[in-house]
Amino acid sequence: MKKLYIIVFLLLLKLFSAQNFKIDTADYAKRKAFLELYKTRGEQFNKALKKKYSGQEARELVNVFTNFQKSVTEDIKDKMYSFDDRFVSYTKDRVNYIASKNPTIPTDFSILIAKDNEPNAYNFGDKTLVVNLGLFAFLNNEFEFDAIISHELAHQTLEHTIKKLIAKLNNDKDKKLEVSNLKRSGNRYDKAFELYKSLLYSNMKQRRKNEISADSLGFSYYKTTGLPIANYVQSLQLLKDFDDKKEDSIDVSIYKKVFNIPTQSFKEDWLKMEDFSKYNYKHYQEKVSQDSLKTHPDLEFRINLLKKNYPELATSNLNSQASPQFSLLSNLAKERLIPNFIESEKYGQGIYNCLAILEDNPDHKATKYYLGLLFNKIYDARKTYTLNRYLDKIEPTKQSRSYQQFLSFMWNLGVDEIKNIGQYYEKSEN
Ligand SMILES: [Zn+2]
User: Which residues have C-beta under 5 Å from ligand 1, the single-atom ion?
Assistant: First the structure.
């Protein structure tokens, strides 16, 4: 579950220009080349599985990974990933560097850069490493980046995904793992990802164990590489700070400021909200474990355990310098914030983030232009009755009050009103 709808590093956002936003048709050739390589590697990986495991177990594992690779392929075709060489080569270089000092790490990873603003990285288990653009935007330097990568590489060497799959297959033998039939959720881009998450979160206790062993092996990889060890813990601390941030909020006055336009006056009715007071929030919150709401659970525990197990961390110094190369990538990733929402068709969240930017920078041209684009997308969706796909429903138990106010506003708008807003703002770039 996503806790934050406004990405917190937004505050650090340098003002960007909309000129950097192109739908990435130029990526087509790279995407095609990647898909060919990905297919070959997937087949090799599945073949190795067949060798290592036998009988029913091998068949089921291969079946799951084959279907999983198909969903990833579909997600790639759906442009969920960026094939910007700067991010891909950088990540590849870092993996190779860490592997060069730690010979047990494989080097034939398929690297995917997700157009996702959440600071995170994943290892799908078949030597596919996914790094979110949001991770580049969020981290301060390459040491923190290498720390996260080391941790993900450790998951691969420890074969955590395969082991989890085997446990799951043994647990629900009669129930088939319905990988390929995974239902599409509100957003059509979540397919492979939702599957991976359902696997990851299926057993919290085991997950915690896996995280701890990946932290530990990852630390050893990282240390061997000669990187400043304090930064390893720092990377976890930053992710923890991200999770701990208070609920997102934008002031209700922003609606009148942004949506009272020369071609259409603001209507107070747009802000009307349904009365959700019948929901007992506390009751709901107590029912859900706090950790399960977090993107990165257990972080406090894991940080303390690392400090306990590696006393040398107490006397080591943080290196807070960033190389020009990392800074460049980090800034590029920040510029992609709103375009990422557009390309991954999270139009509602994109508009919400535009409003957050406009609160601090009311005249920011690029943001106004993106706002226009996003409203045009919402208009198209409204006309074809597909708005549900791009704009969240109101869920009082899961969303902040501010986000509920936003969703109410969006759902209250009439189709022509949406059109007028889109038309007005799309001209902002000029
Ligand atoms: Zn992990």
Answer: 211, 214
